[in-house]
Amino acid sequence: MIIQYPQELLDEVHQRVAGCNLAGFTPGQGKLKPDLMLVGEAPGRHEEVHNIPFSGASGKELMKMLATIGYNRESVYITSVVRQRPYSIKKVTDKKTGAQVVKKPNRTPTRKEVLAFANLFDWEFEQVQPKIIVPLGNTALQRLLGSQANIGQLHGQLLKQPIQHAKEDGSGYELSTTNSLLVPMYHPAAVLYSRKLEPTVREDWQRLGKIVKKVK
């Protein structure tokens, strides 16, 4: 299932990201009221083109990890804290022709961009109602728990605590009055960049599989 966002929330995002280097729009996708809600950073180039979250190289890595604990794309919900691809603009010289070429590589979304999508994400979370939130990487983790949270310290752990919601005036975040269950994970791209992390990531996913069984 591809989620349909309220038009007023989409309009709000559009206004708040005016002037930012963002492209496309990839909606969240998957099962409502799932065991797991996987929360990434932002779409990449592949996601921008195909409109399917985590469908590029990182997505293939994520699907492999999900499969090890008996889940797949259809049995979880997948989204990101920013729904458009953040890019930077770089001018490079083509080695063959010597011509100047403009490239638009992916980049990490800014805090302003994450906040611009905050109300949309909060609404999405309320619709999905997952048993466990799985933030993938620091950007997603800090959106939920604050800037002091660090994936290197919290990966693979079961946390039961309030998460951040956008303030009504849009100026920042405040903590929810109820607890949520979270198991932070390294972003699957981290494994692609550093294969030495793979044993740790596999171990974390096996731990998550055991946690889900207990929670259910």
Automatic annotation (TrEMBL):
<dbReference type="Pfam" id="PF03167">
    <property type="entry name" value="UDG"/>
</dbReference>
<keyword id="KW-0411">Iron-sulfur</keyword>
<keyword id="KW-0378">Hydrolase</keyword>
<dbReference type="InterPro" id="IPR051536">
    <property type="entry name" value="UDG_Type-4/5"/>
</dbReference>
<keyword id="KW-0234">DNA repair</keyword>
<keyword id="KW-0227">DNA damage</keyword>
<dbReference type="InterPro" id="IPR036895">
    <property type="entry name" value="Uracil-DNA_glycosylase-like_sf"/>
</dbReference>
<dbReference type="InterPro" id="IPR005122">
    <property type="entry name" value="Uracil-DNA_glycosylase-like"/>
</dbReference>
<keyword id="KW-0004">4Fe-4S</keyword>
<keyword id="KW-0408">Iron</keyword>
<feature type="domain" description="Uracil-DNA glycosylase-like">
    <location>
        <begin position="27"/>
        <end position="206"/>
    </location>
</feature>
<keyword id="KW-0479">Metal-binding</keyword>
<protein>
    <submittedName>
        <fullName>Uracil-DNA glycosylase</fullName>
    </submittedName>
</protein>
